[in-house]
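Agenda item 2: zinc ion complex prediction
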Amino acid sequence: MKAVLIILNLAVLMTGCDGASTSALSSDSARSASAVDNLPTSWSSTAVFPLNIQISSDFDNDEITAISDSSEVWSQEQGGGVNYFNEATTNISPKSSLSSYADSVLGVYKVFNWPSELPSGALAVTQIRGIQRSSSIQITHADILVNYDFFDFAAGTSGGPWHYDLQTVLVHEFGHFLGLSHDNSSRSESVMFPSIGSSTVNQTPHDRDIDNLSAKYGFNRSASNSRGIASTVSQEEGVPVTITYEMYPGNKEVIKINGVVHENTNHHCNHAHK
Ligand SMILES: [Zn+2]
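Presented output:
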């Protein structure tokens, strides 16, 4: 299996393309709130921040630092009064099944036995649970699973080929954790650009990312946000929903809602056909 993945990585590196096209496979996309964020998804209006996340003690110290920095950088770039995450390292362990992650722990898991319910080719997965209402999804739970079963991670490009920058991957996943969807502008404009290769280092949210997050929660950019989070969630009833953001190496991400593909981003970068 690893040999197959390495061949796929090689193909990605050789094309080296930043172009993007997105095809939405569900009619849900017709109800898009905006091109940038077609799934208005957010934590509730109550004082949920900072979210207390637990980092698996299976990660080594450098990895824990990278994960911690990946979450803290969202608050730092927001600039002023918002603390999105508190992190603690605990001995949480990966679950035997994907549904078992719906517990009381908001976790970042180092997974050596990748769940059979998830594609083995996914680098990392953020799984969000929430309540779907007519025009929004309220997040009630989230976890990040990092696929150490089929991939290798390192700091920056220090690991050489076939290693992915853990911090780049986690900054993107924490964006999903906060309710951000993909931004198809470019890698240099957004950490939510749905393409990460083994040589990609993109560790700091950009202006567009912070603007999208500010709009989602009603924060001012770089002003004092001590007034708290604007109430954007209606009181109507909703239905439980599970969103899975699956990041693949190089040029593909798949978003599933209750197991059904909602967005399948696949970059077409063969310029020879233009
Ligand atoms: Zn993603």
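Discussion summary: Residues 1-37, 223-234, 269-274 have pLDDT under 50 and may be disordered.
Owner for follow-up: CH.
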